[in-house]
Structure formats: structure tokens, C-alpha cells
Amino acid sequence: MLTRLSVDNYALIDHLEVEFDSRLNIITGQTGAGKSILLGALSLLLGARNEGAVIKDSSRNCVVEAEFDIEKLQLQALFDELDLDYEPRIVIRRIITPAGKSRAFVGDMPVQLTTLKTLGEYLIDIHSQHRNLILASEQFRLEALDTIAHCTELRAQYNNAYAALGKARAALAQAQAEIASARKEEEYIRYQTEELRAANLRSGEEAELEAELATLTNVESITEAYGAMHQVFTDEQTGVIMQIVQRAKALKAISDHYAAAADVAERLNSVVIELQDLDSCAESLLEKIDSDPERLDYVGARLELLYNLRRKHRAESLEHLIEIYNSYAAQLEGIEHADQNIAKLEGDVESAHSRAIELATKIYEAHTAATPAFEQQVDAILHKVGMSGAQLRIGITVGELTATGIENIEFLFTANEGIAPRAIEKIASGGELSRVMLALKAILSRTLNLPTIIFDEIDTGVSGSVANAVGDVIATLSSTMQVIDITHLPQVASKGHRHYLVYKSDSTTNMRALTAEERVVEIAKMLSGDSVTDAAIAQAQILLSK
């Protein structure tokens, strides 16, 4: 709901600020007073392009700002999608600088115009005669039937099912393309797989072989080093172990006379144990290690094989080479089991298609069942607003499965009895389209949380009792939503809960809410012109009393 609108320095508006009622707001004023300028400012706020000369005073910014109460519109998910902070009341602001640059804000957050336009579609529906072209929109017709047939949940299920069908079809197409491509290269893939399988690759083997190669190529220096260490430890005359043992015994012998010597003797014994362990390791290695030319040749050849395979397949490591092998093996397995895989994916597509058809059929049946009552309701409103012979018929035919279901929907219309209905966008006049649209929205508003609707002289071309009936329909519409109606008809203007007058003063457009007394005078002017008569005043009071 639009609660407040503020306009600064836009076209003929210097400054204007208006608070709106939650029900039916009437806007009247003489032709040329600036009612269309007001709509232009509001359109600018909702993301319309800046067409240039919108600034009244080129020395300051043009600013349009509006406050909306959106608590009942259930827009939390939309705000999340647009990455906006949700509040039950929001302020939208659009600024145009004298240089023509544009800035837009939702709350304090700067936004792109595309965001503003997307959000605006959920806040305000500005309805003028050219907007009646929406009747030619398949999407509008579909949403209308979904609403009157209570198919919201079914529609959500169908959308999910159709999306699943799309994914299943995409998976099948991708698999078919991959298999076709793989079969062209089957011989190559098979050769690479067999070559890598024959290499019997094992993670970590390359590092192990490189370490073993280093040992085998340096056996002499290794045995020389360990042999020298063994000799240093165990030589009968100069061996380190024997000498330390002797020193430990000497210290032990004097420990009765010098107690500290016992501790040193124990420590030397510990050193002896460690050295003996090191010597045992050296003896063990000297027994095991030996020059093995055959093993050296094998290790070298094995490493050369791994290096060559890595170079061939541009593998960064042996582990990467194993991944490449696994990929080739998987491709080969896929080729060998292609028929089974394709059959499974075809089954998935068939299952998803059946589910989508099932839900689309349920929606079609619900639409078909709800259509007669909907047609009667529309016809009743059309008859009420002066189109006594008018009929709206919903033509539904079954076609191919699409994103919207299996239906082709037409709105068929005739303004006169005895003439067969035809496509409404082809035969209805602007005035007829306006009244059909009014009837549709009056019905749909009963079940939908529609945004604020602004009617821009939707009642053009009607008068008398028909004008009064149009006013009744608009007033009924405002019982479930906020309506702002720009009108020249006193019968319609008298239905409002709040009445605003747009007027010019010193070439500047202004707008203000009328008091009860001023409203009587304004409606009297609409009845009789600028020269207000007592009869016009009396008639205005009668209209307002209704």
C-alpha cells in the first residue's frame, strides 16, 4: 500500500507531498492541471527511464520518494532474492541530478534501476488504456485461471516437475553427446587405458623407487661409511666402546672413596649401550646391503617407465597419472555400458515427463471446471457497467507440453448478442477492453494479494448510470486493496474515501486533499462546469450521500 508520496522539482511540480488512504483514493482536476505529470513522477520512482527534461529547477536535484506498507504482500522471499533488507514499511527514493545522473535507494541501500523495476511490479499496477494489451498475454491469462481455479499449489508442483524434466532431458542429451564423442575415440581410449593398466600404477611407488635407486647407486660409499663406524666402535686396541667400558670400570672402582664417580660410571654405561645399539644397526645394514646390478637395472627401468608415462600424459605426479588412468577407465566403462546408461536416463526422462503431464492435466481439469463460473462473474460485471450484450468466453485447447502446461488459452469476447466471440485483442475497442480489465481485476482481487492499482481514466467514454456502475465496481475493488483512481466522472469521484485535487498555481502543479465541503464543490464543478449552480451542489450532495 502506498502511504505517502513526495515529489520535488519534477516537471511542473515544485514540491508536493501527499498521504493516501488504504482504500479508494480519487484524483480529479482540469485537463492540463498535471495529473499525468504525477503518474510520470511515480513511474520514475518505480524504475522508468529518465527521459531528460524532468527537472523544473536546473540548480537542484529532482527527488521522488514514496513510503509503502508491504506487510500483507508477503514479499520476504523477493527481498531475499534482490538482496535487500526486508521491513514491513519501506521507503523508495529516486534522485535525478541536474547533470542527468540517476540514483535509486530502497531504504538506505543504493540499488540498480532493474531492482527498482522488479520491486515496483509487486507494489503498484498503473493501469491505463494501453495496459489493456495485457489481455493478449498468455501469462496473464494463465495466472488469472490459476487464481480462480485455486491452482497455486498445483502450479508450484508443476513448475518443479517441469524443471526436473528439463534436468533429465539435459542429462540424457549430455550423456548421448559424450557417448557419441567417446565412441569416435574408443580405440584411442582403450589403448591408453590398457597401457596404464599394464603399468600397474601404485600411489607412492615413484618416491620409494627413487629412494631405492639412490641407495643402489651409492652402495660402496654407504658400506664404507658404516664399516668405518663399526671399526671405530669395536677395534680391540682403539675401539671406542672398549675404552669407555674400561673407563666406567675404573670410576666404579673409586666410587667407595669418591661417591660422585658412581654416577659418572652409570652414565658411561648408558653411552656404551647406545653405541652398542648403533653398532648393531651398522652390522645389520652391512649384512643386508650389497651391490645388486639386476635390482639396479629393474629400478632404473621402472622409474624410466613412470617418467615416460608422466611426460606422455602431462601428469604432474604419479598420483595425477593414476587419476588420468581412472578417468580413461571410467570413459571406457561408460562406452562399454552405454546402452544401459542411456536406457536409465531415458527412463528418467519418461518418468519426469509422465509426472509433468499428470500435473498439467490436473491444472487443465481445474481450469476447465472453474471457467463457467468465472465467465458468468465477468459477464455479470460487464452487464452492470453498461455492456448488456457482452460475453467473455475462455477458450482452452490442449497442446504440447510447455513450461506453462498443456493448455493454449484464449480470451474470446463479443460486445453484442448473436455475434460469436472472437479473440478479445482483435475486436474489442479501448473502452470495452478497459471495462473487461476492470471486471477481471475486481474478481481476481478477491483471492489475490494484489498491489496498489492506479486507474488512469479507465472510465473514459462512459456516463450516466454506466458511470455510476463503474464507480461501484471500483469501490468494491477497493474493499480488498488500495485503489487510486484518476477520473473526470462525478459518479465515480463520489465513491472515494479520500478525494485529491490536482491544480495549477503560477504555472506550478499542486495537489491537496479536499475537505468534505470542498469535495461537494469539486463534484458540483464536475457536474456543471466552473459555474456552480445550486442544482449541481444538491446533485453532488446526493452522489456523496450514496
Structure overview:
This protein is of the alpha/beta class. Helix content is 55%, strand content 18%. It has 19 helices and 15 strands. The protein has helices at residues 35-45, 76-81, 113-120, 138-148, 152-184, 186-198, 205-216, 219-234, 240-253, 260-288, 293-313, 318-336, 338-384, 424-427, 430-444, 464-477, 490-493, 516-528, 534-545; strands spanning 2-10, 13-19, 24-28, 62-69, 89-96, 102-106, 109-111, 124-127, 391-402, 405-414, 422-423, 452-456, 483-486, 498-505, 508-513. It has a 6-stranded antiparallel sheet. A 6-stranded mixed sheet has the order 8-12-13-3-14-15. Strands 9-10-11 form a 3-stranded antiparallel sheet.
Task: Please give a quick description of this structure.
The protein has a six-stranded antiparallel beta sheet with strand order 2-1-4-5-6-7. The chain has a six-stranded mixed beta sheet with strand order 8-12-13-3-14-15. Helix 5 runs antiparallel to helix 13, helix 13 packs across helix 15 and helix 15 runs parallel beside helix 16.
